[in-house]
Design brief:
The chain has about 350 residues and is mainly β. The chain has a single domain, classed as Porin, CATH 2.40.160. It contains four helices and 16 strands. The protein has a 16-stranded antiparallel beta barrel with strand order 1-2-3-4-5-6-7-8-9-10-11-12-13-14-15-16. A hairpin with a 6-residue loop joins strand 9 and strand 10. The longest helix is centred in the N-terminal third of the chain and has 21 residues. The chain is globular.
Amino acid sequence: MHARLLAPLCALSMAALPAAAQAPAAQAPQVTVSGVSYLQYVYQLKDTANHQNNFDVTRAYINVLGRFSGGVSTRITADIQRVGAGDNSLRFRLKYAFVGYTPQGSSLTYKLGQIHTPFIDWEEALWDYRMQGQMALERGAYLSSSDFGLGVDGNWNADKVNMQVGIYNGESYSGGTGDKRKDFMGRVSVRVKPTDDASRVGGLRVTAYGQYGKPTSGGQRSRLLGMVSYRTKQITLAGEYAVTKDSTTGPVPAPVAHSSGSVASVFGVYHFTDSKAAVLARVDLTDPNTNVGNNRLTRFIAGASYQLSPNLRLLADIDMLSYQGGAPTPALEATRSQAYFQAQFTF
């Protein structure tokens, strides 16, 4: 009797084994750690009295990325830099800390936390020389690369259309959480013509960015920008123009202070054929207040880079800043023209 029952049970269990083996396994969590750092030697060309020069680590980032089942992803980035350190040592601060969710089959990714703002990260990927310094709008304190908020990234047809929109506190990641006031930011970039660069910034592209919000304590803040860029594996060319409007209010009945500015930037990179060498140039024109004359700033950057290995890039460049009305202080005059030798390493 037992033998008659055992035989069918064994047959059923043998038939079930292939089905169990074919059942899809849950995606295992994937956590990766990477880093990038910028090193430099700077010599102040205009400081003929003191011949000021020094070595420094201008930035070091540690990235921890997580990918999990169900379309969930996470990122935490530590930013080590020399800001706000009483003893002038390098200190830690948080650059990014967010959770992302991409629904299955969707072209959209939703992010919550301390996240990328829509434009600076995009422009840095196009320029590809963040090691030299900040982009024009970030140097002028008009935009920040990171802020606290809720955003949506999207791309369609292999990045033919790439966009990012979000609502943020508006005070950047270095300005705290602010108050009840918020900023809305959005960017859309359309590839008009493809090239041999299939990255998200490759091809002939038209990009627009807009921002509107209210700073802490009141007033208004708006940014409107247009950019045309062309990128291949050998050449990068881009030009942008932005108009800015800012107003602040103090305790009632304090008057409202208004300022309207403009920022223009043109840059290019040429990679020599069959070589790891490249040359680059950039010009930034910043007018903090178009209603006031004689206050425009012009920055000129030029240099040459060499990709020593996939993880190490070297750059020698000059960075010259001129003031339309002359340098406002002797200290700014001494530092307005500098020569750099810089290195970027990744792991």
